[in-house]
Amino acid sequence: MSPLPSTDAPRGVEQTYFDSLAKGVWRVPRCGDCGQAVFFPRQICPHCGGAQFDWFEPSGRGVIHSTTTVRRSPDAGGDYNVCLVDLEEGFRMMSRVEDAPATRPRIGDAVRAEVRAHGDANRVVFSLDEQA
Q1: In what helix (H) or strand (E) does residue 81 lie, and over which residues does it extend?
Q2: CA-to-CA distance for 15 and 12, rounded, in angstroms?
Q3: Can you name the residues that pair with 56 across neighbouring β-strands?
Q4: What is the DSSP string of 9-70?
Q5: pTM for the whole thing?
Q6: Is residue 2 scored above 80 in pLDDT?
Q7: Are the C-beta atoms of 61 and 88 separated by less than 8 Å?
Q8: Which of 8, 53, 86, 88 is the most exposed place for a label (fewest CB within 10 A)?
Q9: What is the structure's pLDDT at 1?
């Protein structure tokens, strides 16, 4: 008897998302019916119920909607922030603002996304966009 496939493994549009990140490219699905960006990737558009998607690379420009500082001991890696970011393409995502002190990001700050290696996987993280 073969083992059952893991239910934790990404499939469908989610797998396409992670495959792109593994190649260092951030791509997000856009519904072919209503044109809305669908993030986090889903099989069915939450806006209209459509199931056909094309993929695009977001600009990466956004604004911090909310932020918090996670406190950890220096031995555990120190403090870090977690932010909700509103992207100019009309969706919100959770990530971190890197290259800044953990308490520096503020609601309303302009940020810019990039794909960075974290351990064995690539992640979308943000930097403060001082030029915005």
Answers
A1: strand 80-87
A2: 5
A3: 28
A4: S--HHHHHHHHHHHTT---EEEETTT--B-SS--SS-TTT----EEEE----EEEEEEEEEE
A5: 0.86
A6: no
A7: yes
A8: 8
A9: 45
Length of the chain counted residue by residue: 132
Q: What is the pLDDT of residues 27-60, one digit of tens each?
A: 999 999 999 999 999 999 999 999 999 999 999 9
At 36 the pLDDT is: 96
Q: How many CB atoms lie within 10 A of CB 96?
A: 21
What DSSP designation does 78 have?
-
Rounded distance between C-alpha atoms, residue 53 and residue 51, angstroms: 7
* Token output for 129: 């966009």
Degrees to nearest 5, angle at CA 28 with 25 and 31: 150
- 3-state class (DSSP) for residue 120: coil
